[in-house]
Design a protein that fits this description.
The N terminus is likely disordered. It contains 14 helices and 4 strands. It is globular. The termini are far apart. The chain is mainly alpha-helical and 353 residues long. Helix 2 runs antiparallel to helix 6, helix 4 packs parallel to helix 7 and helix 13 packs antiparallel against helix 14. The strands form 2 sheets. A two-stranded antiparallel ribbon has the order 1-2. It is found in: Cell membrane; Cytoplasm, Cytosol. Keywords: Cell membrane, Cytoplasm, Membrane. It comes from Ficus carica (Common fig). Belongs to the Hyccin family. This is Hyccin.
Amino acid sequence: MSDHTTAELTVSDATATATSANPSQSDSFSKVRKAIQSLSTILPSIPPSLSSSSNPSFSLLHDPEISTHISALLRRSSAGAGDDNLCRWLYEAFQSGDPGLHLVVLRYIPLLAGAYLSRATLRRPLAGFEAVLLALYAHETTSRAGQPVTVNVPDVFLPSLYHEPTSPAKSNSTTLNLAVVSPTLEPHGTVRATRRARIVGVALELYFGKINEMPKSSKIDFCEFCTVWAGDRDGHHNLRSDPSQVGDTDGGDEVELGTHIPLPWELLQPILRILGHCVMGRWANDKEVFDAAKEACRSLHVRAMHDINAKAILATESLIRLGNNMCFEMELPNGNGCVDPHEIPTTNVITLN
């Protein structure tokens, strides 16, 4: 009996067990089972533990072997074409509507968006990448129902938050306290150069919305691509995948990058939110993600200075200062090497700056 056949039988057994225990999960297990079977025809191998897992979507999200194989395929120079089987799998997994498979697709958005933006300026057909990005964009467009994403901003003309009125005023002045986090989305069926940043930005917004559930390696991939997108003064970069992870199946594993990657605010805004999360993760003692995020912030700050982008300069400099403050707090002799920014310090010393 082949490995794929054994895997299918094992997944079927796990599905039957889950269905009998909780019938409401039968549809989800069926979708994940089909997704794993389909993925087994694309990847070199599927770990046996994935097939026998009681929570296959969670295992699919965090399994290091699956991550290695998929990351290697996305980094190939031929990835993203219209006949790319992995892009087709990601598209179908997201269109399945299963929340667990949604997380799996979002987990690889940093790699997919990174490879796409890095090569989009080369004017090569990347229909596979664009199909996945458009699926995420269409999902979010439908979810918002034509409404922008807004937040209430405190009125700076009032002495404090405690002076805010308990009931909203009847005048239109209350609309001045609304800040638009993400503007209204217009339906798009294709990706054009003028829409590219907006469509990719929405995909990153979805990623940020689930970032607490993303593995550490996914966040590091994102930070590394931010450094690539920032570019140097001449705009030249080489991005190579690990030769031990990618076979020379398409004439080489080097990913050729464009000379200049536009970074408008509609793309920078979700990027900075994700980096902010990674920087704040330092207090959770996640040094590897923190270091990658700080390097990305520095690179983007240099890029913002070069582009004379005032908003980006202010935002990246704020993240750099935040990272420096987090480093300082981590060095304090508190016994456990970790500081909770929400904890009230217990000290009798008052410092006046």
